[in-house]
Every structure is written in structure tokens, then in C-alpha cells.
Amino acid sequence: MSALAHLRQAARRHAHLADAVIALAVFAATLLTAFAGHSAVVGGHRTVAIVAAALGCGVLAGRRRRPLVALAVSAGAAEVFLAESGSTSGVLILLAPLIALYTVADLVERRPGLLLGCGAVGALALVHAVHKPALLGPQNLAFMALGGLAIAAGDSSRNRRAYLAEVERRAERAERERELDARRRITEERLRIARDLHDAVGHHLALISVQSNVAGQALDSDTAAASEALAHVKSASRKALGELRDTVSLLRQPGDPVAPTVIPAPGLDGLDELLALLRASGLGIDFRVDGTVVPLAPAADLTAYRVIQESLTNVYKHSSRRQARLTLGYDRHELCITVDDLGGERTPGGRTHAPRPVPAARHGIVGMRERVLALGGHFTAGPRPGGAFQVTAYLPYLPLDLAPEPAP
To answer: Is the separation of the CB atoms in 103 and 71 below 8 Å?
Structure first.
């Protein structure tokens, strides 16, 4: 960094000290040029001139706090000094009002500052013309030009400071927006991981829980049933561990070895395997398809699978008879998924099996609703006339080339 840059930084850090140094320099230069060598100024005139110079220059030390006062005092004191000194060699005293003009244009509001600055230059030019009737004389024209230059420099400084302040404000606003966006993305990712863990691992753990209970009850009385239940527990445990391992591996640091960047996302092509697993675990499923099957975009395909998986798992866990009806209705514009828990429907004998209610605030229903709404669909879940609990999801057909990739 150059010496000039160091000097500028020091002046910005100690602005009032720098103003005092400027005031002292102008005062010293004025006295040296006005009174060096032979001078006609004697007695009281000399004293008045020195006092006027000290006042006009000294007020510059406080020009940042009171710019208008500094301009008025420095201009008046400069005129007194010129009148009392009686010499043109002391014109350096005019540096004081010129510096004050710069400060007014820099710190006072733009329109009033420019009007006051121009008015001050015009008033000083008229005062000079009274003493030496030459309003358009070289010295007066030079003073007016310097005054205009001081005002322009002050206004330019104001504009630059306002520009830098606006740039800083925009940078701060952009930084805040980046932080908010990062927090939003983190929250969305956290919720996505929570949904995936609940949908994938929770499904298998529910099977394990129910089959473990079946095995425990049949262990003494029915060895074959217990063995079959334990086999289902083993299979579901293996799949749950695999799902959990894939999800946890995705959370590892990018530089870690063997860290997959994409977890294979299930879809409706894996529906037969899901239904077979649930049927083997003891859930009766009446499955039918209405309409012509339409290929779904990856995001809609994953959402459809997760809704079916979670709904049937809830029936398996909460139904009194473990009977479910799954209907896929392919319409012109959307896929309608309907899952009915038949545990509460009236039987031919007239009895009604009341299903265990599923609270609306459970994470599974919340996750299904979030997934469906994110794709612009509609979701409902609740009891229906006749005693059945029904989950219905409408998923629009997303164009395959425009649909977002599914969250793993």
C-alpha cells in the first residue's frame, strides 16, 4: 500500500484531527504570505487581521459538525482579514471559505447545499466588487471559478459516498438473502430426509413389529407360523437396514469414500413387490386399476409409491381386520390413488369392525400431504361413511421433460 493510501486511511480514521491540521496549515500559509517581509499593516489593524485569520481558519476544525456555521464564519473572517490587511498577498485566506463550501456541498442535503453554496460564492464576489469595483475582474472571476469547483467536488464526494452506501446495503441484503436461502434449503433437506426415513425405514420397521408380535404369540402353539413370521422379520430387517444405510451414506461428506450421490428411488414399477411383501405379512389387499396406465414423471412416480406404501402400512398397523382396497384411477389429466381400510366396513352379518383411528397429525399423513401438494396435487385422509378409513391422493401427470427429479 502506498504512502498516500496510508495517509487517506489515517485521515478517515481521525477526521477531526485532520481538519485541525488543515485549519492550521491554511492559517500558517495566510500569515506567511500576508506578513512576510515588509508589510504596511501596523498596530491594531495587524492584530485584527491576525484574529480574523485565526477565527476564519480555526472554524474549519469543526466544519464536519457545523458546515453552515463554518461557511458563514470563515467567509466573514476572510473578508475582514482582506479589508484589514490591505494587501492582495493574503488571498490564501480565501482557502478557508472554499474548504467550507466543499463541506457544505458534501454534507448538507443536496438541493439546499447547492443553493447555499452558490449564494455564498455570489455574495463574496459582490463584496469583493464593492472593495475593488471589478465584478468581472480576473481575481473575482478566478474566485468564482474556484468556488464552483469546490461545490462540484463536494457534490461529487456526496454522490460517491451515497453510491458506496447503496452498494454496501445491496451487498448486505444479498448476504441476508443468501443466508435465508441456505437456511430454507437446509430445512427442506432435513424434512425430505425425515420423510424418506419415515416412508422407507418406518414401513419395514412396522412389519418387523407386527411379525415379531405374531411370532411371539405362535412360538409355543404353532411353530410353522412362528418360523414364517420370523422369516418375514429377517427379510424386512435386511431391507430396512439397506434403506437406512443408503440414506445415511448420502449424508456423508463429499470427499468421503464410497459415498453415493443418488439413492435409487422406487416407483410404481416396484408396486407388485410391495404388495407381495404386505400380503405375505398378513394384509389382505384388493387391488384394481381403472383406465389406461400412463407413465408418470419420476417425481410423481416416487410420490405415488410412497403414498401407497405409507397408506397400506398404516392399514397393516392400525386395522382391526387387516383388509385394504387399493385403486389406481388413470384419468385424462391425473392419477387418483385411493386406499381404503376395510376394517371398519359392515360385514354381511351386519357387524361393524371399528378401525383404530389414525391421528391426522402423525408424521406419515403429514409427509404424504407434503409430497402430494408439492407436485400441485390434492390429498385427503379420514373416515368415510360406512366405517372405512380412506386416503385419497390426486397426482397430476407431469411432463417427463419438465418434471423435477425425485428426491432420493
So the answer is: yes
Residues 319-375: tens digit of each pLDDT? 777 889 999 999 988 999 999 998 755 555 545 555 445 444 456 788 888 889 988
Quick one: three-class SS letters along the chain?
CCHHHHHHHHHHHCHHHHHHHHHHHHHHHHHHHHHCCCCCCCHHHHHHHHHHHHHHHHHHHHCCCCHHHHHHHHHHHHHHHHHHHCCHHHHHHHHHHHHHHHHHHHHCCHHHHHHHHHHHHHHHHHHHHHHCCCCCCHHHHHHHHHHHHHHHHHHHHHHHHHHHHHHHHHHHHHHHHHHHHHHHHHHHHHHHHHHHHHHHHHHHHHHHHHHHHHHHHHCCCCHHHHHHHHHHHHHHHHHHHHHHHHHHHHCCCCCCCCCCCCCCCCCHHHHHHHHHHHHHCCCEEEEEEECCCCCCCHHHHHHHHHHHHHHHHHHHHHCCCCEEEEEEEECCCEEEEEEEEHHHCECCCCCECCCCCCCCCCHHHHHHHHHHHHCCCEEEEEECCCCCEEEEEEEECCCCCCCCCCCC
Percent of the chain with pLDDT over 70: 65
- Residue 181: how many other CB atoms lie within 10 Å: 10
Helix axes 67-85, 15-35, angle to 10 degrees: 10
- How high is the pLDDT of residue 246? 65
CA 282 → CA 79, 204, 205, 222, 265, distances in Å? 107, 14, 15, 16, 26
Q: Is 76 exposed, middle or buried (0-12, 13-18, 19+ CB in 10 A)?
A: middle
Lowest mean pLDDT among 81-90, 237-246, 247-256, 271-280: 247-256
Task: Pull the grid cell for residue 399.
Answer: 411432463
Name all domains of the chain by residue range, CATH numbers in brackets: 3-135 (no CATH), 267-408 (3.30.565.10)
Q: Report the residue count for the chain.
A: 408
Joined together, the cell numbers standing for residue 68 give: 453552515
Contact 284, 323 (CB under 8 A): yes
Are 92 and 129 in contact by the 8 Å Cβ rule? The answer is no
